[in-house]
Design goal:
It is built from 1 helix and 10 strands, in the order αββββββββββ. By secondary structure, the chain is of the alpha+beta class. The protein has 2 domains: about 10-50; about 55-180, Ctag/Cox11 (Pfam 04442) (Sandwich), CATH 2.60.370.10.
Length: about 190
């Protein structure tokens, strides 16, 4: 004789428990989605606002040049795991809005090919929004052969709208800083 199992009737308490379980599962799923999207969303926020010294990308300067000189200094730092020497460009002083080109010079001091990459920031941070790069080596993996020396150009301008920002009236100098680090294979 076969035995049959009867399920207990679904009670209102069981329905509430299921609803709470589904809500908890949906909240956890939403949290995972937000965590996954946080990095690209933060990057978009920084690019839009210049937060953290994030610069803008441009193809040219449509706003022209204004007669306000600005000195741009350049800085480079190399992570201890990257056997490179990186020499930044000398500072330049030019009118705001003028498109300038400078070169960083990198040398691989090791006896094997090494791939590196650079991240950047502008200080003071609040001026990063007005620093526009037309061409830059940043975020691009660079592979240097043993002993190889390369010039890495940056084409940029300072947006003339900086002159309209009362908080930056006294600003006469910006610093563009790069930190170079090794790119791990498989990353």
């Amino acid at each position: 004789m076969a035995t049959t199992t009867t399920l207990p009737p679904v009670t209102p308490q069981m329905r509430r428990n299921q609803r709470v379980g589904f809500i908890c599962l949906a909240v956890v799923g939403a949290m995972v989605g937000v965590a996954y999207a946080a990095v690209p969303l933060y990057q978009m926020f920084c690019e839009a606002t210049g937060y953290g010294g994030t610069t803008q990308n441009a193809t040219d300067n449509p706003k022209g040049v204004i007669a306000r000189p600005m000195t741009v200094r350049f800085d480079s730092n190399v992570d201890g795991g990257l056997n490179w020497t990186v020499t930044p460009s000398k500072p330049i002083t030019d009118d705001i809005g003028k498109v300038d080109t400078v070169n960083f010079v990198a040398t691989n001091n090791s006896d094997h090919a090494v791939t590196g990459q650079a991240i950047f920031n502008v200080s003071p941070e609040r001026a990063g929004y007005y620093f526009n790069k037309i061409e830059c080596f940043c975020f691009t993996e660079q592979t240097l052969q043993p002993g190889e020396t390369v010039q890495m150009p940056i084409v940029f301008f300072v947006d003339p709208d900086l002159d309209k920002n009362a908080e930056l009236d006294t600003l006469k100098e910006l610093t563009l800083s790069y930190t170079f680090y090794p790119v791990k294979k498989g990353s």
